[in-house]
Amino acid sequence: MDREKREFDWGNITFLALSPLIGILGTGIYVYFNGIHWLEIALFLTFYFMTGLSITAGYHRLFAHRSYDAHWSLKLFYLVFGAAALENTMLRWASDHRIHHKYVDTDRDPYNIKRGGFYAHIGWIFYKYSPDPDAANMNDFKNDPLVLWQAKYYVPIAILAGFALPAIIGLSVGRPVGCLLWAGFFRVFFVHHMTFFINSLAHMVGRQPYSDGDTSRDSWWLALLTYGEGYHNFHHKFQADYRNGVRWFQWDPSKWLILAADKAGLAWKLNRTPPLSILRARLAMDLKRTGEKVHFAPHDWRERIRAELEKRKQRIELAHARFVEAKDAYIKMKNDDYKRRLKIFERRFEMQRARWKDNLSDVIEQARNFRSPALTPNS
Questions:
Q1: How many domains is the chain partitioned into structurally?
Q2: pLDDT digits (tens, 9 = 90+) for 164-217
Q3: Coil, strand or helix: which one is 268?
Q4: Same-domain pairing of 260 and 299
Q5: Among the listed residues 188, 229, 186, 231, the one whose alpha carbon sits nearest the alpha carbon of residue 211
Q6: Of 14, 166, 237, 341, which is the most exposed, with the fewest CB atoms less than 10 Å away?
Q7: Are 226 and 56 in contact (CB under 8 A)?
Q8: Cα 28–33–36 angle (5° rounding)?
Q9: What is the pLDDT of residues 251-272, one digit of tens each?
Q10: Are residues 319 and 174 in the same domain?
Q11: How far apart are alpha carbons 369 and 361 in whole angstroms?
């Protein structure tokens, strides 16, 4: 169906308008007259992380992408607190997300960024869902009893876990309304827009180190707001990986939650993209960007440089392969000889990477010599 002809979903519009009003204004008024209790802040943070991570580590990485398997108890946690995030049933959320990846940046993408940042962020939710033949793309969960339970009782689960539970906890200190406002309405508003940023800002700002085949981008600061989902370019390139922040220092609490679940025996079969595939994607983008920067140079020179860079690229890949082999051997043997060998191959790989960056800079500098002042547009 043409999206221009879709009907407004007044239920969604009303809720998305009223929940921020109650969450911000209502909480503000309550604080003005009653102050702030430590339990309200503690519950806000607790429910913020439980519901947000249930969307990112659960709805997204477990259910939509099957990037790992999980124990039924962890699935139940995700389904209960994912419902409390009030972003639809898991089946509907994950189905939309699979369609997004299949048709990214096209009219069949549910939150197509090319229709504008507001549309991708929240505007697409203002419309009634148009039946799509890909709605059957969640058949892998059609017989899962927990999933079917959540789909059937989504609204009462959302109300009980997202609103009633914080209010009941608040009774212990005589502040049920305050806890309801902080951990219920204000938290819902906050979680909504933090996760909505993944559909909007993660396709608008940042770098594309792995692929420029779509609009997805990596942004470290956006990862801080989105439970690690800001490394969106990596995710679109390697969808099945349970990580978004693939490097150890990149902020990705969803990845750390999954790792902790793995250590506890609650998750297994964590899917990791081979390091060589990640390296090759980055090197391919380096080559492509360098080629774009020297496009004005003579064809013969560009072809010669490309051939040389390809050889150097192969050297990096070989150095990386030897480094990985040495790392695996050290993990297996754990002795000083293998540790020294690992350090040697690690240094060689890092040297090759440093030379690669220098090579690319030299190529761009050399290409500038082909620009003639007499041929510039302003001459």
A1: 2
A2: 999 999 999 999 999 999 999 999 999 999 999 999 999 999 999 999 999 999
A3: strand
A4: no
A5: 231
A6: 14
A7: yes
A8: 65
A9: 999 999 999 999 999 999 999 9
A10: no
A11: 13
How would you label 256-292 residue by residue, b for 16+ Cβ within 10 Å and e otherwise?
bbbbebbeeebbeebbebeeeebbbbbbebbbeebee
Give the chain's radius of gyration (CA, Å): 25
Q: pLDDT-derived band of residue 379, with 50, 70 and 90 as boundaries?
A: very low
Q: What sign for the dihedral angle of Cα 292, 295, 299, 302?
A: negative
For the chain, how long is the longest CA-to-CA vector? 80
> Token pair for residue 209?
């180190």
Single-letter code of the amino acid located at 335 = N
Q: Are residues 158 and 83 in the same domain?
A: yes
348 residue type, one letter: R
Q: Which amino acid is located at 50 in the chain?
A: M
CB 53 within 8 Å of CB 208: no
Q: Can you spell out the DSSP letters for 240-261? A: T-S-SS-STTS--HHHHHHHHH
pLDDT, position 378: 41
Q: Tell which of 236, 253, 268 closes a domain.
A: 268
Q: Which residues contact 17 (CB under 8 A, 6 or more apart)?
A: none
Say what angle helices 275-293 and 299-333 make with each other, to 10 degrees: 160
**Domain identity same for 52 and 98:** yes
Domain with 154 in it:
3-268
CB atoms within 10 A of CB 108: 15
Domain end position, chosen among 227, 248, 268: 268
Helix axes 187-199, 10-20, angle to 10 degrees: 120
At residue 293, the 3 state secondary structure works out as: helix
CA distance 369 to 379: 17
